[in-house]
Design a protein that fits this description.
Distance between the termini of chain B: 27 Å
Shape of chain B: globular
Order of helices and strands of chain B: EEHEHEH
Strand content of chain B: 25-35%
Number of helices of chain A: 33
CATH topology of the largest domain in chain A: Heat Shock Protein 90
Structural class of chain B: alpha/beta
CATH superfamily of the largest domain in chain A: Histidine kinase-like ATPase, C-terminal domain
CATH architecture of the largest domain in chain A: 2-Layer Sandwich
CATH topology of chain B: Transcription Regulator spoIIAA
Radius of gyration of chain A: 39 Å
Number of strands of chain A: 22
Strand order of the largest sheet of chain A: 14-18-19-17-16-15
Number of domains of chain A: 6
Oligomer: heterodimer
Number of strands of chain B: 4
Chain lengths: 830, 80
């Protein structure tokens, strides 16, 4: 197991990133075939965008930088400003690989080495180089490059153009203005943010309204259309035409941090208090109306603002439709505030009305009555519409702060507990939450060791269960209770059924689709074929075929070898193919299918095939076969020689294949998981390699044989047939005993001799020997044993400790009666 | 669906994402008198907002979420 990062969020980030990288790689491959497919392009863009966004949650600027460049580039491809090319795909794939590398580094060391910064800059530059020079005529904001923020971050001096700014302040309603001034007086620095999103910002996954809403310290904000809006029929939904003006009391650093991904789209100006003082613009009619509504003399302007605020806050709280545990307390607090307010403006008589409304609200649990009273009161007081014109404010006022926090909850923010930290993450998380919860309920990620443990336990259960028939037999024979025996057998059949189902279920859990291995081939084939200058079309079939996880995983390396070999040796270059009358593009098919209890994987190419003569000659030169064999062997046998160690047919050793390791490695890897590999080839037409693997390694079917009174298991994969041979039909050729079986001469060997048991094979009453015909590698062999018993499914355990050196056995298994069955490793003993 | 399209009224629910904007635009283009009901809406993507603003769509119900309402009301009312 790889080291687990202690931070679960980081862990999730890495696993998600890997998935996204894989998906991006796949999409890039698909784009290669269909460069104009907008759907794939959009999906790819989204993958990269999400990756970038996620990386931004942590401090991995190296990763973010590369991804950001990739995202920008893709954004341009999507909008038609850049053209998809192979070079572009190469650069993007490089970037993806690099990010994958960083993921590995983060996983291992919890961080990225600072030395990576330069590499990431190079990669990002390479990506940016592919971006076409910005087209003139475009909206300046739209084309402003992330690296050259023109007005970005520069603390624009208020003196530059005060009149324009001041005019904008006129838009701020009086109430918000008062609350802002209040902040100023408490020592807060106010900032005016002019946020003009890029036109194509939607494609970057930005939601400017959301960003604006989440701006820290927001006192007031408005939505505006900086340019004229087009007629409805000409509106481009995906081009952002809106802008935002915001007034906030958050410190500059916090704002910079919040808008750090959009520095070129926001202008942040420090606002001195006097700008907001009355006289700038018309301190709108509302406040005048308000001052009329409130008894003159008793209220200063600040007071009236505060009064209005408090009302608005109460109303806002009443509008919340959540029902926290403290709901009753909240209602009481509102009633108290309202009563105090009415007292403050000299309407003491309303107190009883409020109490009545409160009592009703408390008993029904609905806010409506209090709300109705409040609204009615507002109307009679002729104050302005509290919510429409009023801003929300947060800060010193406890109630206001509570209202704000509650409304955060309303939106469903996962980070409601800490609103000040949340906004930066918000843009990324927004809209993804629903998805998260969906996938969360459907599948589990379980550590493999837990599954293995479960499987071991079920294995034990299966073995233990097999003891019951023995017990039944004992009950009958030893204790003479036939009835008890029958009952035990009845119980056994039930437990047997359940155990079988359990075993089946756990196998299902361990099953994985071969697509796990297949998915890397499009990339492999693409890269390799480009390196070799060949045109190859890859066809994948049966990706959904499933097999045990271990099988699938151990399949990866052999398959890569085979595919590389096919590309390097099998498929010809386009010219050669055309000369041979074949289409210029070679075809490589990887097909998976389930056949009975085995998975069969075929790798078929339509290349030049394998020339048996060349193989024979090579094998002879390298001393793999002797001269006699050279004369004798058939073409098929010659082709099989490519599985022999140390044979390479390629004249030139490349970095792909041709080192003479490969096919023999393939065979041993496949055989290690009880698989077989068969090769067929026709010169000039192509080669087909067929790998057959068991569905699962957990249960091995073995045939139990007896020799010298001991029981042994032989894996059924090796058993061809069982025959009885009379003693006189055995002939000795030189030192080897042979017999003619079905018209073929088969060498016979005694198991006792092979295992070093000093006993001669037992004959049965008809003077016959029991011969188990087995497949050992490519040869058939008759194994002389004493007798055959049943076949059974066993859970094979590999040897541990010093027993591992016993190569004659591949492992051991427990039998139902508790005895140990040794499983013979046929290939080793013959 | 975050937007439920009725005969002449569109109901916005929860968070209305950018993916809905195109459909909303098409819907509004054929219904000049259509109204939108935002009462159950907790957030709408800017793309949707600008469609509403461009279409000068009438709002039959403002969002229950007061904070959202305070954003939308001035923007959508001025368009009327």
């Amino acid at each position: 197991m790889s080291p687990v990062p202690p931070n679960p969020l980081l862990e999730q980030f890495i696993s998600e990133s890997r998935d996204l990288l894989e998906a991006s790689g796949k999409k890039l491959m698909q784009l290669e075939d269909a460069p104009d497919d907008q759907v794939i392009l959009n999906e790819l863009f989204r993958c990269v965008h999400t990756l970038k966004g996620n990386s931004g949650l942590f401090t991995f600027p190296e990763m973010t930088r590369v991804l950001h460049a990739g995202e920008d580039l893709l954004g341009m491809v999507r909008s038609g400003q850049a053209i998809y090319s192979r070079e572009l795909a190469d650069r993007l794939l490089d970037a993806m690989d690099y990010v994958g590398l960083l993921c590995g580094e983060i996983e291992a060391t919890d961080g990225i080495d600072a030395s990576r910064a330069l590499e990431s800059q190079h990669l990002a530059d390479a990506l940016r180089k592919l971006m076409p020079n910005l087209i003139p005529n475009q909206d300046a904001a739209a084309v402003r490059d992330g690296d050259s923020p023109v007005v970005a971050n520069a603390q624009t001096s208020p003196a530059d153009n005060p009149s324009a700014d001041l005019k904008q302040f006129a838009a701020i309603p009086a109430v918000a203005r008062k609350s802002a001034l209040e902040r100023c007086r408490q020592g807060d620095q106010l900032h005016w943010i002019s946020y003009r999103p890029q036109r194509e910002c939607f494609f970057h996954g930005d939601d400017p309204l959301n960003s604006a809403r989440q701006t820290p310290g927001l006192i007031w904000g408005r939505i505006l259309a900086p340019g004229p809006l087009p007629p409805l029929s000409e509106l481009d939904t995906y081009s952002c035409l809106l802008g935002f003006d915001l007034l906030t009391n958050a410190p500059r650093e916090e704002l910079d941090q919040y808008y750090r991904y959009l520095p070129d789209q926001v202008e942040i100006i420090a606002v001195p208090a006097q700008w907001l003082e009355k006289g700038h613009g018309d301190a709108d009619g509302a406040s005048k109306a308000l001052s009329r509504a409130i008894p003159s003399g008793s209220f200063s302007e600040d007071d009236e603002a505060a009064f209005n605020w408090i009302l608005a806050a109460q109303r806002q709280i009443l509008l919340l439709d959540d029902r926290p545990a403290w709901h009753a307390g909240r209602l009481k607090a509102i009633a108290e505030v309202l009563a105090n307010l009415s007292q403050a403006v000299g309407e003491t008589s309303t107190r009883s009305d409020i109490q009545t409304a409160l009592a009703e609200a408390l008993s029904t649990g609905h806010n409506t009555l209090l709300l109705a009273w409040l609204d009615a009161w507002i109307v009679t007081r002729k104050t302005i519409q509290p919510v429409a014109g009023l801003s929300w404010a947060r800060g010193t006022d406890g109630i206001m702060a509570a209202a704000k926090t509650d409304s955060n909850l309303d939106v469903g923010s996962a980070t409601a507990g800490d609103p000040s930290k949340a906004p930066a993450d918000e843009g990324v998380r927004f809209g993804r939450r629903a998805e998260d919860s969906l996938t969360g309920t459907r599948s589990l990620k379980v550590d493999q060791t837990k599954i293995d443990r479960l499987m071991n336990l079920i294995g034990e259960l299966v073995v233990e269960k097999n003891a019951l028939p023995y017990l039944a037999q004992r009950a009958e024979v030893q204790f003479g209770s036939r009835e008890l025996s029958r009952e035990i057998k009845g119980q056994y059949s039930v437990i047997n059924r359940i155990a079988d189902e359990m075993q089946d279920a756990i196998m299902q859990v361990r099953m994985m689709a071969v697509s796990f291995v297949f998915q890397r081939f499009p990339r492999l084939v693409r890269d390799t074929s480009r390196k070799l200058g060949k045109e190859v079309q890859l066809v994948l079939e049966g990706e959904q075929t499933e097999a045990d996880k271990n099988i699938i995983e151990s399949l990866a390396d052999p398959l890569i070898h085979i595919v590389r070999n096919s590309l390097d040796h099998g498929l010809e270059s386009p010219e050669v193919r055309l000369a041979a009358g074949k289409p210029a593009t070679g075809k490589l098919t990887i097909r998976a299918a389930q056949e009975a209890d085995r998975v069969v994987i075929e790798i078929v190419d339509d290349g030049k095939g394998i020339d048996p003569a060349v193989i024979k000659q090579k094998a002879y030169e390298k001393g793999i076969i002797d001269e006699a064999t050279l004369e004798r062997i058939s073409d098929q046998e010659a082709i099989n020689l490519i599985f022999a160690a140390g044979l390479s047919t390629a004249a030139v050793i490349s970095d792909l294949s041709g080192r003479g390791v490969g096919m023999d490695v393939v065979r041993s890897a496949v055989e290690k998981i009880n698989g077989t590999v068969v090769i067929e080839s026709e010169l000039g037409k192509g080669t087909s390699i067929r790998i057959s693997l068991p569905l699962s390694m957990a249960v091995t079917q073995v045939m139990v044989i007896e020799s010298d009174g001991q029981l042994f298991g032989v894996p059924m994969d090796h058993v061809i047939e069982t025959v009885r041979v009379t003693r006189d039909s055995i002939h000795a050729i030189k030192q080897t005993k042979t017999a003619v079986l079905r018209g073929r001469i088969v060498p016979l060997k005694s198991l006792n001799t092979l295992l070093g048991i000093a006993a001669i094979p037992r004959l049965n009453s008809d003077d016959e020997l029991a011969v188990l015909l087995v497949q050992a590698g490519n040869a058939e062999l008759g194994l002389i044993v004493d007798g055959f018993q049943e076949t059974m499914g066993v859970i094979q355990k590999p040897f541990s400790g010093f027993l591992t050196g016993l190569s004659a056995y591949s492992g051991s298994a427990l039998m139902g009666d508790g005895s140990v069955l040794m499983i013979l490793n046929i290939r080793e003993i013959v | 669906m975050p937007i439920e399209f009725k005969k002449n009224r569109a109901l916005f629910r929860d968070e209305v994402s950018v993916e809905e904007a195109e459909a909303l635009l098409e819907w509004l283009q054929t219904r000049p008198t259509a109204k939108v009901d935002l009462s159950a809406c907790s957030h709408l993507h800017t793309a949707n907002l600008q469609v509403l603003m461009t279409a000068k769509a009438g709002v039959s119900n403002w969002p229950k979420n007061a904070e959202l309402r305070s954003w939308l009301e001035p923007a959508l009312k001025s368009g009327e």
